[in-house]
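Before a colleague's protein record goes any further, I have to sign it off. Would you go through it and say whether the fold makes sense for this chain? Take the sequence as given and treat only the tokens as open to question. The record follows directly below this note.
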Amino acid sequence: MKIVDIEIIPIFPRIAARNADQKARFRDINRRTIFKVKADNGIVGYGDARCEAPPRSSVEPLIGRSPFDFLNANLNTGLMGALYDAMGKHLGAPAYKLMGQKVRDRVPVAAWTRPASPEDLSREVQRAAAQGYKIFKMHTCEYYDVLEQNRAVEAVAPEGFWMHYDFNHNRGLTAVLRLVHELEKSRVVGMIEDPLKLNDIDGWRRLREKTRLPILMHVPQLGGGQEIMRGCADAYMVGEVGVGVSMARGFACAEANVSTVVQLTGGTLTKAMAMHLAAVLPTVSHSINLDDQYEEDVTKARIPVVEGCSPVPEAPGLGVEVDEAALARAAANRPTAIPRHLGVLHLAGGHRLYTPSFPGVSRLLGFPEGNIRGLRLEVWEDDGSKEFAQVYARVEKEGPVLE
């Protein structure tokens, strides 16, 4: 079997209806690329990644080669999904059989959202629980109070539901320690990702000694092996770093009895690839895929979530069927137009900070992320009012305005 062509198809599926009125917040979430690998035996493999469409030159070296030449390669994960889909279809076997021994039939999966106000997060947690999820990932941010967000989750989350907070690897230990100690008292906090700058190896080890919460490292700066040996984290991220790196890191973590978290983001094809990867890595905690962010997709069915987990597909290849008509519709869509808007940051003392978009609070006010209580952001979209026009013009001229 030889590759005769690879199509690179940019798509813009509609975002979930519940988020359609928050275009600025969900900017570029629906910018995805489908890879369509065609072989000389008529087999077609499909893969998906949440990324800009790469240039044609990036796939030309694969033309005329066997897909099997690229087992466990570190190419674009969407392209790798298409290659595994083609190889599995050729062999009549699910993709995980090309990766290793299967160790689980179902994989815990996490719902997701962009940084949210306490009210929006409350609604999202209730939505996720109703859809069968038991884990929820969200990045914290500079313009909402994470303790207030967490109280909103505590008020609505069912028993056994927990949050995976991503702290954005942007702080030192002194800016994080009290926050982590406060959050570890909560019944709904299950994991903290990237609480410190990634190069602060000693800080990671010290924080891990001081907290009961599991901490997750996304991109080990020393490659993973050194961090594992130094006991920097309780879990390490795999997936988007590439299939080959993910396999190596995942099995290394298993040997050290350390957990991994799979993160591959896109639609159902992406989730299928993640399920196959998670099927063979022994210590996977959960998978994050973002397939819950789209009102439409390019497959004939979604992968269900039941009791917090999703099945590993057993059909050949990735095990999900592409709907060519749906693919054509998603490819015909245009990128979401972002309306003119302002960020209005409301501070606890009654002041307001106007910014061109989402504010960089740590730069503007000097406090590290998570160290200001009682702040919250309002996104003010152009409503045609004279007041908006005046404030927008002032911010354009003067930059951020604190009143």
